[in-house]
Amino acid sequence: MTAAALVGGGSYPQPGEISLSHNGVLFLDELPEFERRVLEVMRQPMEDREVTISRARFTVTYPSSFMLVASMNPSPGGYFNDPDAPVTSSPAEMQRYLGKISGPLLDRIDIHIEVTPVPFEKLSEDRKGESSVEIRKRVTAARDIQTKRFAEIENVHYNAQMNTKQIREFCTLDVSSKALLKNAMERLNLSARAYDRILKVARTIADLEGVEQVGGNHIGEAIQYRSLDREGWLG
C-alpha cells in the first residue's frame, strides 16, 4: 500500500483509507510488512483526527477520526522467545523487523497486547468464557458514562478524545497511584504522550467497572498495555 492510498492524494485528491475509515475501524494486518514511510504518514492524522492534502491551487481537508487496530508477528519467523521453535531469528533480523515501526507511531497506539500461544488444554476445555452479549452490555454502560461526562464539552464524546487539560480534570490520582505511574514512567522510559494515554486507558478501565475514581489497580492494568513503546524492544 502506498502513502497516497493510506492518507489520500493524487492530482485530483481523493480520500485514503484512513478517511474512508472515519468513525470506524482501520485494520492493518502484518504491520511491519508495510513500508516505514507509509506508516509514518499516519502519525499526524492519528493526533489531529483529520488529514490535509495541499496542492498548488487548493487545499483539501478530510476527516480521519478512526480506530486503528493492527496486528503483527512477534518476530520474522513468528516464534519469538520460544526455545523449541523450528525457526529462529537472529538479533539483527529482529532489530530490522521491529525497527520498521517507530517509537512515535507506537506512542500513538493506546494499547499493546501480546498474544501468547494457547496450549492444547485451553483449546480443548469445555469451560465457557464471558459471552459477547455480557461484554457488550458492560461496554455500552461505560460509553454511557463517558457520554454524560462530556455532555457539556464540544467535540468530545469519549475518553480517547480528551486533551491534556481534560485528562488532568477527569483522571485525578491519589498519592499511591501517582507513585506507581511515576515508577513505571522512569523504569520503562515512557514518553509524555504515553503518560497521557495510560491515564486515558485507566479512566476507561474504571468506567468499565463503574467506578468514579481512577485507582492504582486501574493504573497498573493500563501500564501492562504499554509494553512495546519502551526503549529497546529486545529487553
From TrEMBL:
GO MF annotations, alphabetized: ATP binding
InterPro entries: CHLI-like, Mg_chelat-rel_C, Mg_chelatse_chII-like_cat_dom, P-loop_NTPase
Domain Magnesium chelatase ChlI-like catalytic: 2-121
Protein name: Mg chelatase family protein
Source organism per UniProt: Zobellia galactanivorans (strain DSM 12802 / CCUG 47099 / CIP 106680 / NCIMB 13871 / Dsij)
Superkingdom of the source species: Bacteria
UniProt-listed Pfam families: Mg_chelatase, Mg_chelatase_C
All copies of domain Mg chelatase-related protein C-terminal, residue ranges: 129-226
SUPFAM superfamilies xrefs: P-loop containing nucleoside triphosphate hydrolases
PANTHER family: COMPETENCE PROTEIN COMM (PTHR32039:SF7), MAGNESIUM-CHELATASE SUBUNIT CHLI (PTHR32039)
